[in-house]
Amino acid sequence: MAIKIKLFANFREGRGKIVEMDYTPGMTGQDVIDSLGITAPEIAALIVDGVDGKVDAMLAVPVKEDGYMAIFPPVAGG
Amino acid sequence: MVTWEKFYVSIFELAKKYIGGRGLGTKLYMDEVDPQVDPFAAENKIVFINGPLSGTATPTGGRYMVVTKSPLTGCIASSNSGGEWGAYLKYAGYDAIIVEGKASLPVYLNIDEEKAEILPALDLWGKYTSETSDLLIEKHPGAKVLTIGPAGEKLSQMAAIMNEKDRAAGRSGVGAVMGSKNLKAITVKGNLRPEIARPDGLKAVTKECRTLLKENGVTGGGLPTYGTAVLVNIINEHGVYPTKNFQGGQDPDAEAVSGETLTEKYLIKRNPCHHCPIGCGRWVKSDKSPDGIGGPEYETLWVFAGDLGIDDMEVVIDANYWCNELGIDTISAGATLAAAMELYQRGYITDEMLDDEVILKFGNADSVVHWLKKMGNREGFGDLLARGSYRLADFFGVPEYSMSVKKQDLPAYDPRGIQGMGLQYATSNRGGCHVRGYLISPEILGLPEKLDRFDLAGKEVWAKVFQDLTAVIDSTGLCLFTSFALGAKEYADMLNETLGTDWTAEDVLLAGERIWNLEKLFNLEAGISSEEDTLPPRFLEEEMPDGPTKGWVHKLDELLPLYYKERGWDEDGIPTEERLEKLGLL
Ligand code: SF4
Q1: What is the ipTM of this complex?
Q2: Does the distance separating the beta carbons of B445 and A74 come in below 8 Å?
Q3: Which positions in chain B touch A18 (Cβ < 8 Å)?
Q4: Could you tell me the pTM of the whole model?
Q5: Distance between CA atoms of B393 and B468, rounded to whole angstroms?
Q6: Which of B117, B156, B297, B566 shows the greatest Cβ crowding within 10 Å of its Cβ?
């Protein structure tokens, strides 16, 4: 089983738009970003399976089999 | 009959209370105009005003504000634009221009250090904005041009004022007020520089602010690289990216019009405003010019893509180009097309009404530019579209299909999944608007901290602080985007070094609150009661049908009383004497 990681803005550089990763039981968002070489302070917003929240809290959430994460660096506009 | 009078008044005392730009412009306007005035009457006035920092070396210090009564909303309008024009008004030696009366024939104003003159503009009337600019620059080399297009001349309630061809004081129909005065354009030029009270101090604080902007992930990274278009994906992923006139909240094909796609396939270069180190503006490839043209902002991308069910970058770039040429607000223009498409979907608009012309149907890319041109020129059914989505839907007896607040079309964020933003939409003094208090920052983008976007707790406090701080920034002459890196203290510091004042962060926030209350007083006197502090019924009654916001409605009835209390207003949303006294407004 694989989870899907959607990357945005400069997080795509050298990684691509979507990364598929093998799922291992107990895996958290922190494990995912570790293997992508992204650190928590670089992340401004994070969605795990459709749910968003404070980055640190979301990184501790176990990811679901067949689930997805969306990871954003600081972006804004208006 | 229009006459020109140049006069010097000391506005320093007033500036101490209202800063400049939006705040001082509103004060000057309210002192001279009856709030009940018909926006198109000769008695109405229109104020073009800088902030104290416009034309200084401060980062983004070149913006101007247009203040008048909005023909779209009936509320106070203050529309802000970047580019170069505001700085050059200052370089010509002026802080503000107040236009009153009405010319019997089309005219334009030409202003430089030596003279200010009213000149005939018959040959310019009817021309698109870029041709008007080119012709005026030929006549007045080196001048910066602000102009209206056909939409402003024809009094469309969504008419914008354009400067440097692709910068817009876009919202609230301010271009139509210029049109009602037969005023086509204003050219400005000069080499004067504003007097600075403490030049060394300003230099130091400017340097500090530039460093903060450079080091910030948004103003030094995301915005310069991708422009505001970078929002498409993040807003869409949160399920608050409105689709098909806000019938849904997520678009599976949004990537096609994202900032990442714009950068990768269309971007030629950045297109910054005066003295702006951020440079969010885009210059993009287009068949309109081999050198490229001004590119679309996030709101424009959304409204001509997700909101119309189209998702074609070239359609958006074209639509943006035509809005600029016609002089219409992209948000209101696209939102009105979206409302028309929903009215067609529901059988209110029929093929016969459209004279068998291109059908206004979700997903029909051919309809966009076709109907924009008709809208801007007020031809056929386009005449009805030119009035904005509220008047369009109201014409068919179903105003609920207009996604607007106080008749101004809402921007690109569905309030059902962003409760604080919904409160800010409902209470915005200029009607549906995202730049009166950008709560998207904390609720979605995690800046300066991440709030739970569905939770109501404390949202009234956030809304008030964001609204007051925005009123300050809009009054300084700087760009709102600086606030991703700067706070009230930095704005106070820059103002102090420029004006010789000694304001604290608290002082400027109090000025922001004063400005907000002043605008509210105008609206009340103009007959816009707090009953209009509401949202379209769709957001209050219909649950979001899809995406991560599925099942949510906006809980305005719970938030609004808390907001009024936080503002020190009574339960009917009317500022209390006590609060007005504290603010020095009595
Ligand atoms: S950040 Fe963008 S809109 Fe603001 S002044 Fe700079 S280029 Fe203009």
Answers
A1: 0.98
A2: yes
A3: none
A4: 0.97
A5: 33
A6: B156
